[in-house]
Amino acid sequence: MPSTFKKILPSLFALFAAALLFSSCSSKKKQTAPPATPAEEASGSTLNGTTWLLENLGSQTAKAGITVNFDKGQARGSAGCNSYSGPYFEGAKGKFRMELAVMTKNQCDPPEIMQQEQRFTDALKTTVSFSLTKDRLTLKDAKGGAVAVLKAQSQELRGTLWHVIRYNDGQGNMTDVLSSRSLTATFDASGQLSGFGGCNKYLAKHAASPSARTFNFEMIMMTTQQCPSDTLMEQEGSFMAALYMASSYRIEGDTLTLSDAEGNPAVIFKRN
């Protein structure tokens, strides 16, 4: 593979344009957030657009892996083994309520992970209020006791390395990466993006805002190595097209999700 970057050939542009055309079929209806009560409308949403990592569960230090993301009236995340989602409601004077509407039913090892997961979901059910102090979110029960303390998840992309686990194939499907290839993304100290698309190296400029979590991808250069198969060529084209689709991002635990303008996943990465 060439060690230097060359300008993208017209044929590659044609490939990416075709993949982008397929992506027009991938839009899905956005979920409507549950209606707020008058008190909730008056108080606004303090938690909207924030992501948290569980730090303490009651009086015990939590193991890694439990996350909460609040977005437009919906909370979702990982309970350590299973993923969950459901509406949340903020009221006046820190009142808070969250419903676990959906949760997967996987069994994970070791048993301590499942035990912690159960304690976490129990804590959510007893939470009636919250408080914010610097970068900590404290969930409280009816007596004002702390049932869980969470730390704000950094949304900084600079200086991070990721590998792709799934990408939008341009037809509305999230597809696993072929096991024979590793697709990567590296953000240097200045935020410039480079990586490997399965056949070729790429270099891109992008504008990411950690506070607004917006994302914009623009290719600068790419090598022109011929893929050994049409399948790999199609994967690389779809991956690049998915990067162009992305308009927002979220870091949650060790996962980076790029989403399109409709909020649908475009690319999902795991931290290296």
Would you mind describing this structure in some detail?
The protein is α+β, with helices and mostly antiparallel strands. The chain folds into 2 domains: 136 residues, Beta Barrel (Lipocalin), CATH 2.40.128; 115 residues, Lipocalin (Beta Barrel), CATH 2.40.128. Helix content is 19%, strand content 39%. The protein contains 4 helices and 19 strands. Strands 1, 2, 3, 4, 5, 6, 7, 8, 9 and 10 form a 10-stranded antiparallel beta sheet that branches. Strands 11, 12, 13, 14, 15, 16, 17, 18 and 19 form a 9-stranded antiparallel beta sheet that branches. A hairpin with a 4-residue loop joins strand 4 and strand 5. Helix 1 packs across helix 4. The longest helix has 16 residues. The protein is elongated and about 65 Å long. The chain starts with 9 loop residues before the first helix and ends with a strand. The N terminus is likely disordered.
